[in-house]
């Protein structure tokens, strides 16, 4: 297995990488569609639709397709997004859970004094509570949501921002994610990137995006990132 040396900072995606959040997202999206008298959505559909932020997810739910309906009413879209946010918040994220090995692996990196960040397309308002709820908030020095900056993944803006803030060369940054948005953002930032096979990637294998390393289990990151003694 390929091993990276000289990694000084690790950025992680959230949904589909650290956290299996589809059940809560699907429930909120389905309730929003029901409230508007639209076609209901399933967990299977939402699993294919997430990854580009809440606005796109709700657009896909209204369109019943991965491709947004070009005639989608902006006012309806806005109303649906507000309903989704309300239902997602009210649900308390009780069905979401960390993937196997996540907490232990993050703790090992933290113990090795490797600073870490969250770089997600999820709206920033929901992220701190989720990290606290699952007992991993202490591991991250930066938390970047999909609306923290004007641009989100696959744009590399957030990764460039982290590299500038922490004075990192691109080869010292590692991005971990489960979707092509994560891989494309890292490749555009010219940093190293690991793709995880178990997350959400529009029904496509993560290997198709050509990450540097493909892993089936989160805990395998320990074998990929060479920790300083």
From TrEMBL:
Pfam families: HAD_2. Its cofactor is Mg(2+). It catalyses: 2-phosphoglycolate + H2O = glycolate + phosphate. InterPro entries: HAD-like_hydrolase_sf, HAD-like_sf, HAD-SF_hydro_IA, HAD_2, HAD_sf, PGP-like_dom2, PGPase_prok. The active site is at 13 (nucleophile). GO terms for biological process: carbohydrate metabolic process; DNA repair; glycolate biosynthetic process. Keywords: Carbohydrate metabolism, Hydrolase, Magnesium, Metal-binding. It comes from the Bacteria. Pathway: Organic acid metabolism; glycolate biosynthesis; glycolate from 2-phosphoglycolate: step 1/1. One of its GO terms (cellular component) is cytosol. The keyword Hydrolase applies. Its EC number is 3.1.3.18. CDD domains: HAD_PGPase. One of its GO terms (molecular function) is metal ion binding. Gene3D superfamilies: HAD superfamily/HAD-like, Putative phosphatase, domain 2. Mg(2+) binds at residues 13, 15, 178. The keyword Metal-binding applies. Specifically catalyzes the dephosphorylation of 2-phosphoglycolate. Is involved in the dissimilation of the intracellular 2-phosphoglycolate formed during the DNA repair of 3'-phosphoglycolate ends, a major class of DNA lesions induced by oxidative stress. HAMAP family: GPH_hydrolase_bact (MF_00495). Belongs to the HAD-like hydrolase superfamily. CbbY/CbbZ/Gph/YieH family. NCBIfam families: HAD-SF-IA-v1 (TIGR01549), HAD-SF-IA-v3 (TIGR01509), PGP_bact (TIGR01449), PRK13222.1-2 (NF009695). This is Phosphoglycolate phosphatase.
